[in-house]
């Protein structure tokens, strides 16, 4: 592969030459290939040139249809080649990663029209891979799905099932390869935070490990999720200390696509999850060896204390309606028990130092236990300082987990990400508040940055109609949605703020015979990119989703109607409770901005090209409040709102 698509003169500054070539791409090459020249793209290219030249962070707010992805991809690739380190493009979630590399996606377009071979590889999050340990359990334990999992196991490459010498290992086991599994089935076999890969005996044959080795060798771009990038940042030092490679290789620049969502990803990556059953199953491994009595008693005491702590947590917690979360009420008694648990763990840690000298324990078990205790100590160390954290209980089929999340991440981000001299691009259609980027920069710890805004080139007044439809007491919303869908004969994306509402809609649809004429695709019923692809190909189908408010890019008639089931106000969970508690006017500072940003993103799914046209229907109880209604009407593109579109 020739390094640059232009004749590079080493005597001239590289970025100047790269920018001249990129300008030529937008002024000449792409228009010649039938692309429309967009002033916004050229403007954005000049702005990015400065960020790459000065190795600075830039907040690039560019409306839908500006073609911002092509601009940042070109800079990222050229700079990667110049520095001989790949660029990282971090997308908001795993489905958006796939969109970037799909056949008709932007990377393929550049490759085709510029005759540019781009080495872009996917760095998927661990939970996107089969965990062989979990699969081993699931094949035999889960009656209803056992056979399916046994077939799946038989379909894995031979090197997984019959280890031998001289075998070639190829990437496998990716969530996308199993579109037929629903989320519940995937949870039984996909990696989760309670798996300890570092000491796993199957790690060299595990799809996750093999894929990581594959994407690390990308020459141009590694595409991952925000969550994965943040995981890389937080684990970087610890992995190096333990003699492991960091999750991502050294890189030349970072693009955060849908960058306004980064703060949440940073918080998620810094989150700890504790579970009594997992602790008990790990710590009892110590009792399999010939350990001294003192250690055996300490283990039993710690198990009893963990159980007591989780009992107390559960008794004192409050259920959050519409979610599987419970708010933790922190009391002195709870903190006392947490501290007692920490002391017992410290006792075990000390005993293990003695025990390891006696060689009574299998080293493998010892390492697992030591690591798990270290993680619990770190988490509980945070837990006993409640002002700095947000915590809640989460229930799943395997029991209750205590989740501990830091309240603010900006100091850590500032130190570990934004203080580096490296080009970092935030790209999104929605980042500024009343023309200023200070709010977003402040929450992320970005002190020194460049920024710009460009509007969407689309004629919304001509291309889109919008209706606000407040719920009445007797509104049958499912029927209303079915009526609305008639306008476009299906071809609709229905956006739900939470999974529970999607489930209710799904349950109610059977009572409406008129629904039988449509094909409904429900998020969670299969792998997400396969659902998106089915929605795009089956023009009259209807996609019902909870997480596709952002990023979904489906130009053409398949998506002619966006129906918002309910305004996307933030949930009443511990994260938002904490943000509200810190705000002078919680509704104005937390709820309203979150809802408006998410709604703007949701509406942005409709018009994806100059030829697109369609409807936005916004339903909801909150539309009965004049203030809410007028704020939404104010940001809808002028001339698009109608009282009704039926
Ligand atoms: S390396 Fe991790 S994901 Fe793979 S089998 Fe082992 S525990 Fe599971």
Tell me what the structure shows:
This protein is an alpha/beta fold and 646 residues long. The chain has four domains: 20-119 and 218-269 and 409-457, P-loop containing nucleotide triphosphate hydrolases (Rossmann fold), CATH 3.40.50.300; 126-217, no CATH class; 272-406, 23S rRNA-intervening sequence (de novo design (two linked rop proteins), Up-down Bundle); 460-642, Rossmann fold, CATH 3.40.50. Helix content is 46%, strand content 14%. Strands 3-4-2-5-11-1-12 form a seven-stranded parallel β-sheet. Strand 9 and strand 10 form a beta hairpin. The longest helix has 27 residues, at 332-358. The N and C termini lie far apart (56 Å). The mean pLDDT is 89. The structure holds iron/sulfur cluster (SF4).
* Widest sheet, order of strands: 3-4-2-5-11-1-12
Helix content: 40-55%
- What is Rg? 26 Å
Q: Can you list the ligands bound to this structure? A: iron/sulfur cluster
Report the sheet-strand fraction.
5-15%
CATH superfamily of the largest domain: P-loop containing nucleotide triphosphate hydrolases
Largest sheet: 7 strands, parallel
In DSSP terms (H or I, runs of 4 or more residues), the helix count works out at: 25
Shape: globular
Mean pLDDT: 89
Content-based structural category: alpha/beta
Our measurement of the CA-to-CA distance between the termini, rounded to an integer number of angstroms, reads 56 Å
Low-confidence stretches: none
The top level CATH class name of the largest domain: Alpha Beta
User: In the CATH hierarchy, what is the architecture of the largest domain at level 2?
Assistant: 3-Layer(aba) Sandwich
